[in-house]
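ARCHIVE CARD
Drawer: 12
Card no.: 0347
Subject: one protein chain, sequence and derived structure
Cross-reference: see card 0346
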Amino acid sequence: MSVHTTIRRITVPQLRSFKGHRKIAALTAYSSVMASLMDEYLDFILIGDSTAMVAYGQPNTLAFTVEQVAAHTAAVVRATQRVCVIADMPFASYHESPEQAFRNAAYLLAQGGADAVKLEGGSVMAPTIEFLVQRGIPVLAHVGLMPQHVNTMGGYKAQGLDEETARIVMQDAKAVEAAGAFGVVLEGVAHTVGTDVTQAVSIPTIGIGASASCDGQILVTEDMLGMNGTRVPRFVKRYTDLDAQIKRSVERYADEVRTGVFPDMSHCFGVKRDA
């Protein structure tokens, strides 16, 4: 008699329960191939609006659309079985009103298959977060350095390096916690601020350029794998250099095509192979 084992995805309540018990490991993904390779090892995958820059060559994240996020989210969901899948809400998809945010968040869950959404903003977005959570949409908040605020912040600048911005980060984190967010991403904040916020809130903090004290960490996968050229943020650790490996492989392929080495008869159809 065969025994069928059902693999269940990590749920939002499980992610929240990890605080104080174990660290949360997360990365970004936007393709089924990459997501399938990650599924066994991570707690959640974020379809980040960083996809606009990494996959589409945009100068920032602002041009990404809800429809694009949903399509990439669906690809990740189809390729995975156990990770929690969280979709980023792109710029201008939730700022107008809580009702607009609900329509777009619901689209990402219904059409993309996401388990939750992520949105940027602290105190100012707290009413929207509460509106979504009360209507069955789990929200991962995002405070500190917020890429969608690149124009108002004057670039990708670390936050919490002075008393005033440190106070704002703490205030924002507490506001999203009170609004019902199940976790909060702390991006580009001073180490001490990341540590203080993690101790001050009851929900998991996910660091990206924050503090080792955060309850979890996330990076853009292409940064971590060495696929984004020579410039990388200070907070990124490169675990390999796929840029170089891919270039070597493509160079070898091109050389073999031009010299007639590839394909050989073993790669052709209708050819009898030796026993």
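Annotation on reverse: The chain has a mean pLDDT of 94. The longest strand covers residues 139-144.
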